[in-house]
What we know:
By secondary structure, the chain is of the alpha+beta class. The protein contains two helices and five strands, in the order H-H-E-E-E-E-E.
Amino acid sequence: MLSPFKLAVALGVSCETFKACIGAAQAEASPGGETEEGQGQEVNPLQPGDRVRVVVADHESGYGRGDRGTVHRVDATSRGPLYHVAMDKAGGTDTTVIFAASEIEPDT
């Protein structure tokens, strides 16, 4: 059996990319969206149409903590989901801002 490092080299990918792919596969395969280590990382808790609130104070787009919007699209990436959000401050137009999962939360 090949070690993870040798397998990554054989596949021609960096170890960091390989680790991210393995982590994503484990998260998808685990019931409840948890990884085998029990870290509790959810695969994709937000869906299009969900209301969200920005939780970071210095997002490069000019939106800050407490600004609200609606998820329009979700893209799966090796580093986690990216959320395309139509912000209320912009009039809720079709123009969206992209946020990482750590930058927004459900607006309840």
